[in-house]
Structure formats: C-alpha cells, structure tokens
Amino acid sequence: MGGPPVTGTIPEPLTTSPRLHDLQTWDADWAGLRVVVTGIGVSGFAAADTLIELGARVVVVDAATSPKAQAQADTLRIVGAADVLLGGNAVETIPKVDGQKPDLIVTSPGWRPDQSLLAAAVRAHIPVWGDVELAWRVRERKGRKTADWLTITGTNGKTTTVGMTESMLQAAGLKAIAVGNVGTPILDALRDPVDYDVLAVELSSFQLHWSHSVSPVASVCLNVAEDHVDWHGSYASYLADKAKVYANTRTACIFNAEQIETERMVEDADVVEGCRAVGFTTLTPAVSMLGVVEGLLVDRAFIPERKDSAAELAAMSDFGAGAPRHTVANALAAAGLVRAYGVPPSAVRLGLQNYLPGDHRIQPVARRNGVLWVNDSKATNPHAAAASLSAFHNVVWIAGGLSKGVNYDELVREHTDRLKAVVLIGADSSGLRAALQRHAPDVPVIGSATGDTGTVQTAGTADADAAPSPVSGGAVMAQAVAAAAQLAVSGDTVLLAPAAASMDQFSSYAHRGDAFIEAVRGLEEGQAQTSEE
What we know:
With 533 residues, the protein is an alpha/beta fold. Helices cover 32% and strands 18% of the residues.
C-alpha cells in the first residue's frame, strides 16, 4: 500500500499525453513505454503483468514487505519487470524507469489521490490511470472478440448485482464473467483464452476515480450513502466519482428511481447520443422503468408497447422465502442492464433462479436454542447495515470497526426499536458508541475495542476508558460471539453487521465473517473459542 498523504491542494491528474494518445488497443505501440505501477496486490500485479506482456518497461512499488509481497515481487522480476521496490521508502517519491522519468503511473485502486507518490506524479504532469482504465485501453486485440462491458457501482449491493448480471447473461447463452472490484481482475479476464461476449464489471469509487475513457453499453449506480469520506475527502467528491460510472454510456443509464441522487447523476452525465435513462423501483414502475407489480418483476422500458403494458421478468417467489427489499432492487438493476443488452425476459428469470448468493451478505449461519445467527460482515457502512437491521427484530447487534469517517446517527435512530443489545468490536467504535448513547440510551452496549487489535468486555456496559487486553481478529470475534450468546434468548437474532470496514482487526470483511462463523460453530460445539485463530 502507499505511504502517508500530503497536505495542500492537489491538481486534477492528467489522463493522456502525446505518447499515450494512440494507446487504444492491445496491438498499439506499448513497447518501451516507461510505467510505474503502484501496489503489488491483486490489481497491481495484474496491471504490471499485463504491461510487461505488452512490452512496457515497468517498475512496481509497494510499502509492503510481507512474504506474500516478496513472492509477488520475485514473480514479476522473473517475467521481466525492470524493478520492484518494496518498503516505506519505495512509495515516497517517483522512481525512475531505466534512468528516466516515467511516461505513466498505473495505480492500484486503494491508493488515495493525496498519497505522496501519486500527488508528486500529478504535480509533475505525469498521467495517472487505474487498472480499469488500462483494461479499457487494451480490450481490443487482433484475432480476439472484443467483449462489451456492463458496469455496476453503488455504495451497497455491487457484488450481488454483478453476480446476478453474470447469471442472467449466462442464462441467455452468452459467454460472460463477473470481474472488477471483487473477484477476477478485468485484465485477467481480457487475457483469458476464453473469448467473452460481455463482462459484468463491478467498479468501486476508487476505481472510478482513476478511470477516464470507459464507454460501457449500459451502466448503473445502485444507490449512494456516505462512505469512504476519508479516502475521497468529502461526500461530494465521493458522489462525483460514483457518477463517473455513467460517463460515455452508449445504450442505457440505469438509475435508482427511489433515490434522487442517482437520477441526478444520469441527468448530468455526458453520454453517447441516443443513450436512454431507465429507472428501477421496488414499487409500481412508470414508463421507462422496471419495477414490481402484484408480486412480479416487470419491464416497462425495453418493450415497444411500454406505454400501456409490461413484460414479466420474474416472480418474487424466484428469490425464495422472505427476500429483503434490497435484494429485489439489485435484481431489477441487473435486469435493466441485461435487458439493455438484449437479453430476453426468460433468461432474466432463469438467471435469478440459478444465482447463488455469496457468503457474508445476510448469511444465516446457525440456529441455536431458538437464536438465529446471521453473518453480514459485508455490511461495511451504515447504509448496508441498515438493510440487514431492517430484516430482523429483537437483534443483538455485533458492530464496529474502521468507521471511514461516517456518521451513525441516522442508522441508530431509525433502528432503535429493533435492538435488544449491542456488542461493539473495532479499534475505534467511539462514533457508533456516541450515536447509541444519543439515540438508544436504554439499549445495553457491551464491550469496546479501543486499541489496534482490541478486545471485548463481556459483562455490563463497558467503560469507554478501560484499557483493552490486546487480542487479534479471531479472538476478538470469539469474545464478541460469547458476549452475544449470553444476551440472546429464543426468538432473537444475533446479527454481525459491523457498519464499518474490517482492516483494523481483520485482513478483510471475509476474514471477519469467517471468524464469526468459526466462533458460532465453537458455541455449537459447546466451547467458546478465545484464542488466536
């Protein structure tokens, strides 16, 4: 990852130069291009590997020095990297490539714009791309099919929607794959021997920030809520980057008709002439929308007779029992994308029936002594946590983590009547604790993780100033689960919906969710695990 941020105003990055202008296909003249790739994780490795294959001269930098980073570095050196520089000093200044200033920086999505190397690149007038921009530039290749792109962003629901989109496309007989923010890097899919017809591309706000020329067939912003303010600097900047998903869209911009912000994004977007605005709603749809009528998902946008009729796409029963509203919304968004691409209604329904939800998103883990245990570790912000809290009553809520500068007042205020108790985890849950004190003063709050690795106190309302006993992720979660088990009775739900990121105590939201599942299984076996995983 990158080094510390710089202070002061950073100008907008350059996106092109005379050397880069004609680099619009795989077969363009990439040979000898001097590139610095920042980050050696999944995205950075794929970018560096691709550029080396194209004949560019590549230097990779990362602050990490872990064995995994060292192994990645060794691999890149073997395949032809000009250099790989690891450690904190490697990311402070712009390295030279073959003794000269680089022509281009390709950054991994997690690197903030104010990171010192990136800020220096902008001030030095060196263009900066993300891995998504690079992927768009190399998507066309002689002798290969050029896959179309359907792009998906949103504060919550991206991974579910991209998975549904992939399933619907495949049900229509198309060669399709979900790529991007979670899962297969786009660059790996482009280099896959399979000639894909279409890519369902999940894009984070970080990836969109560094993307400049992507032109999808159809695009959607599912929803927006305050998130990643620490990275973007302000909520307005976060919204501006999310809105970039609609730029240059060719056929249809799909928006959430129940959230005016996404409609405004479409209104302000610079799109290809003839592109349509199509809404989706979990209510009755107007013309040029998808929605729900009498338990059916319907299309009033992509049929000739849309003024006075609708095409049936699926039924609520296709989701199984008790599908939450946000799942229906995600399905409608996915349906809008694939209908814009020409997928028939029958494939929409079959795709939904075939779709298998991923782990860590409102995932029932166990029912023990009448208590339902639910893993929603992927609820990394208040908006996502609100969706899962709304699905249950009598909740013992396990929450907290890396807050990313968000406000918790609305989340707590709107769900107080559903809360039986709260067990706090996280290196700094002070913001959530304060919101609970303001809006849910009668709800017991158990424990608080106040250090880098944190702890949970399992008896009484925690003293916010109490010194923690340092323990790491697996033990933190085991203690939280043990505390929740003492509070919950038959008919209650213990819900892990942290409303915060995981990286203070866990390597990822998946690691956090897996720790929860393991701790719950420990209870089922009659033991509370409190040792290091």
